[in-house]
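Entry type: protein chain
Record version: 2
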Amino acid sequence: MIKEGVKAPGFELPDQEGKTHKLSDYKGTWVLLYFYPKDDTPGCTKEACAIRDNWSAFKKLGVQVFGVSADSVSKHAKFADKYELPFTLLADEEKQVVESYEVWGLKKFMGREYMGIHRSSYLIDPKGKIAKVYEKVKPASHAEEILQDLKELMG
């Protein structure tokens, strides 16, 4: 995992509508970059819906939220529509961003080992530095945890 206090790796990825987003476009803004394994799976849906349900608090604080997985633009569009997600989902099909943020790696599930995305998040400050790292995220309570940290970090 990347450490707090270092410059966040840049990225350029398409969202669920095919529009390209670059981290550098959001300088001066707090950015939540949350990485999740797969669209429309139980844990990922729970995490996305918790952020959706706290959306007004994120907006009030002026936070740009990006959910990132290796799913395609069209899968992201279906996921966002199905659950009425008001934030941006980024498609990292080439896995360049998940690798640069060190969230791609060996996983184990039901005795099977495979490569995948570890559920983790990065809170990036307005100067482009990693302000907070979240490993082993709990999907249901993650949104509240981030909002609490943001309030402390913003003073």
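Comment: Helices lie at 42-53, 55-60, 73-83, 96-100, 142-154.
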